[in-house]
């Protein structure tokens, strides 16, 4: 049985990409590596590969943990939508961080 983090990763890939091979190519890891990560569990993968997968999905590892713990169910929809808009675009690390800061700003406004 797959752990929650692995299930979430797999669901996000399936929802936002035509197939896992296309996703693996986009994030520059071999498809066999991605397949192995999903089969063995994301917790058994290298940190570098987990970071690549999360970045490719437009989420942070912290967001993945929150989703796995059931604390970000509402954010999950936001993240999925944003990830869909990242298709085919190359974002720099600084741009991704700015997007995350903007998302947090919007969440703060929503809470007030």
> What share of residues is helical?
over 70%
Radius of gyration: 14 Å
- The total count of helices amounts to 7
Overall 3D shape: globular
* Structural class based on helices, strands and sheet pairing: mainly alpha
Can you walk through the features of this model?
Mean pLDDT is 81; it is low at 73-78 and 80-84. The chain has 112 residues and is mainly α. 20% of the residues are buried. Helices cover 72% and strands 0% of the residues. The protein is globular. It has one domain (4-111). The longest helix is centred in the C-terminal third of the chain and has 19 residues, at 93-111.
Q: What is shown here, in short?
A:
This protein is mainly α and 112 residues long.
List descriptors:
112 residues; 7 helices; mainly alpha; single chain
């Amino acid at each position: 049985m797959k752990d929650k983090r692995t299930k979430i990763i797999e669901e996000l890939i399936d929802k936002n990409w035509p197939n896992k091979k296309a996703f693996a190519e986009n994030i520059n890891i071999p498809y066999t590596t991605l397949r192995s990560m999903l089969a063995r569990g994301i917790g058994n993968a290298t940190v570098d590969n987990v970071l690549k997968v999360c970045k490719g999905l437009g989420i942070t590892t912290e967001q993945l943990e929150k989703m796995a713990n059931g604390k970000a169910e509402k954010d999950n929809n936001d993240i999925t939508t944003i990830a869909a808009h990242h298709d085919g675009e190359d974002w720099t690390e600084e741009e991704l961080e700015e997007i995350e800061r903007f998302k947090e700003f919007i969440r703060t406004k929503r809470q007030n």
